[in-house]
């Protein structure tokens, strides 16, 4: 996984600390250990960056004296990152599934974007969700490279794939290369705006917009980027010859 270390000058520990206790050997306690490791990974990855954190630091924050605890439950650093993404994407999919289902017959960019923005906004309500949002920009290359190549990101969730498909359908009149760059812009705007919002909340900084206003603002910004008339020449050689369709 590429190194997308998140740089931050914010104090690392805001809000309540993890409630760490010694692990037991029962099945339930083993699951609790896994949850503690996942939560510790979320926090450290969000604050310091995915590839700036030592695995032993995650074990220590989770209260694990066994140096192999993380490897036992997740296999590797990448395995832990995937588990973090999966946990939050699963929760978001529960919100997105019915919303996107209603849009299948007559999708619009505004409705698609609004549904996704609202799902992401829910993550701002918890410390765990805010850490997840601060991790996302570190992984943007895993999304942007496939999108530019006309493929779906590897780590996509079912509803993420559905969203991208619907957005492409709505932009069918836009040149292929421009359409793909707009999907990259969609990912960049959402991840960066929500990561910054999460950082401000964690730091206790003043927020210019309340929650509802922020959701409306982000929806407006992203829709503006996706719906703007294209001034790129659709017959340009770069588009017609070098972009696989």
CA-atom Rg in angstroms: 20 Å
| Average of the residue pLDDT scores | 86
Overall shape: globular
Distance between the termini: 27 Å
Number of helical segments with 4 or more residues? 11
How many DSSP-defined strands?
0
Share in helix: 55-70%
Proportion of strand residues: under 5%
Order of helices and strands: HHHHHHHHHHH
The SS-based structural class is mainly alpha
Write down the oligomeric state: single chain
Biggest sheet architecture: none
What would you say this structure looks like, in words?
It is a single chain. The chain is mainly α and 245 residues long. The protein contains eleven helices and no strands. The protein has a domain at 87-242. The protein is globular, with a radius of gyration of 20 Å. Helix 4 crosses helix 5 (109-123) and helix 5 runs antiparallel to helix 8 (158-170).
SSE topology:
Elements (H helix, E strand, L loop, with lengths): L26 H22 L6 H7 L7 H6 L2 H27 L5 H15 L3 H9 L4 H9 L9 H13 L5 H28 L7 H17 L9 H6 L3
């Amino acid at each position: 996984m590429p190194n997308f270390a998140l740089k931050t000058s914010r104090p690392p520990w805001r809000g309540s600390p993890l409630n760490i206790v010694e692990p037991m050997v029962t099945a339930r306690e083993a699951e609790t250990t896994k949850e503690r490791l996942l939560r510790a990974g979320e926090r450290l990855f969000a604050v310091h960056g995915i590839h700036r954190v030592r695995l032993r630091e995650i074990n220590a924050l989770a209260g694990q004296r066994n140096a192999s605890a993380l490897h036992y439950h997740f296999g590797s650093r990448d395995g832990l990152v995937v588990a973090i993404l999966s946990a939050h994407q699963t929760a978001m999919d529960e919100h997105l599934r019915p919303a996107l289902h209603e849009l299948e017959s007559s999708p619009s960019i505004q409705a698609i974007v609004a549904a996704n923005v609202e799902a992401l906004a829910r993550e701002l309500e918890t410390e765990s969700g805010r850490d997840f949002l601060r991790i996302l920009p570190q992984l943007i290359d895993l999304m942007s490279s496939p999108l530019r190549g006309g493929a779906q990101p590897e780590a996509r969730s079912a509803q993420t794939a559905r969203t991208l498909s619907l957005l492409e359908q709505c932009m069918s009149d836009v040149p292929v290369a421009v359409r793909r760059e707009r999907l990259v812009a969609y990912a960049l705007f959402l991840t960066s705006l929500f990561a910054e919002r999460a950082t401000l909340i964690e730091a206790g900084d003043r927020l210019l917009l309340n929650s509802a206003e922020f959701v409306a603002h982000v929806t407006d910004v992203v829709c503006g980027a996706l719906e703007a008339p294209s001034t790129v020449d659709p017959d340009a050689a770069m588009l017609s010859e070098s972009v696989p369709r």
